[in-house]
Design a protein that fits this description.
The protein has 289 residues and is α+β, with helices and mostly antiparallel strands. It has helices at 14-17, 19-22, 43-60, 67-72, 109-115, 127-130, 151-167, 188-198, 226-232, 235-242, 273-285; strands at residues 28-32, 35-39, 84-90, 100-108, 124-125, 135-144, 170-180, 207-208, 213-214, 246-247, 251-254, 259-267. Helix 7 packs across helix 11.
Length: 289
């Protein structure tokens, strides 16, 4: 899920700040041949993830960096200092940070407690999500190197997330997912489809902050060809919907990233029993492949 940024401490402090949360956790979550999915274990690996995000978000997709980001050629904000950083690492490209080809930022309650908030709260009222009785996971800043944007990499990423979900007993996942562009009239069909077909139940319905909210209900449901709209959605959003995901009420335009964000919510028990049972067995057996 792509997100906007705010001012940050130096990301070198990330592991120090999160030492008590991360200590003792096996970083590897999934593996396939030379490619593995695992948590970052050093400042160098975190900074490699920030460089990859800069390459994808700013150089490829035209987001507007701050002067500090442009100077460092890294995408960063204060949440990077406390989050877990899920990495896709291809050892054939080099060891450690040299092999980072994908990343996902993961934040649980212990991470958010350090800063007093989740990133998503900058765009949405997530009080109903944070009141959820089980552990919650905010997913964000997802990107993959252009040479690795394929089904195999995405499947490996999802395996890694599933293993993380079981490791920390996550009951609810959420975050801001982006649609390219800021022309909400041009994406009226997609936004309306999400509103009509996938609006979260009230108990889990995040709401766009009033001063940022863009109405999603722009076209009547009977005028929408659902199958055609699904095919046009960004792959990440389609992936969340396949897992039984919902969207919050209202979209948010992000001019810095040239995107329109929706809040995606996924209850982990909504994912098919077969899918989760496989990873539950793997996690218990110590085999996350």
């Amino acid at each position: 899920m792509t997100e906007t940024m705010s001012k940050s401490r130096d990301p070198d402090t990330a592991l120090t700040a999160m030492g008590e949360v991360q200590r003792g956790a096996d970083p590897e979550l999934a593996r396939s041949e030379t490619v593995e999915v695992r948590l970052a274990t050093s400042p160098d690996e975190i900074q490699a993830a920030l460089r990859l995000r800069y390459e994808v978000f700013y150089r490829e997709h035209g987001a507007k960096p701050s002067d500090a980001m442009a100077k460092r050629e890294q995408d960063f904000d204060r949440f990077d200092d406390v989050a877990d950083h899920l990495l896709v690492v291809d050892s054939s490209r080099g060891e450690g940070s040299a092999g980072v080809v994908g990343t996902y930022r993961l934040m649980r309650r212990p991470h958010a407690a350090i800063l007093g908030t989740f990133y998503t709260a900058s765009e949405y009222d997530i009080s109903k999500l944070t009141a959820f009785p089980e552990e919650v996971l905010e997913l964000g800043r997802s990107c993959v190197h252009r040479d690795y944007r394929n089904r195999a990499t995405m499947q490996l990423l999802w395996k890694g997330i599933a293993s993380y979900v079981f490791r920390y007993k996550i009951g609810l996942m959420f975050g801001c997912a982006s649609m390219p562009g800021t022309d909400v009239d041009g994406m009226a069909t997609q936004l309306s489809y999400l509103h009509h077909a996938h609006l979260a139940p009230d108990a889990l319905r995040a709401r766009a902050l009033p001063d940022l909210r863009v109405e999603m209900n722009r076209i009547p449901a009977e005028q929408i060809d659902g199958k055609r709209v699904i095919a046009s959605l960004p792959p990440l959003i389609k992936g969340y919907l396949r897992l039984g995901g919902f969207v919050g009420d209202g979209a948010v335009v992000d001019p810095q990233f040239n995107t329109t964000d929706v809040c995606v919510i996924v209850k982990t028990d909504a994912i098919t029993e077969k899918y989760f049972k496989h990873y539950e067995r793997s996690a218990q057996d110590g085999d996350t492949t």
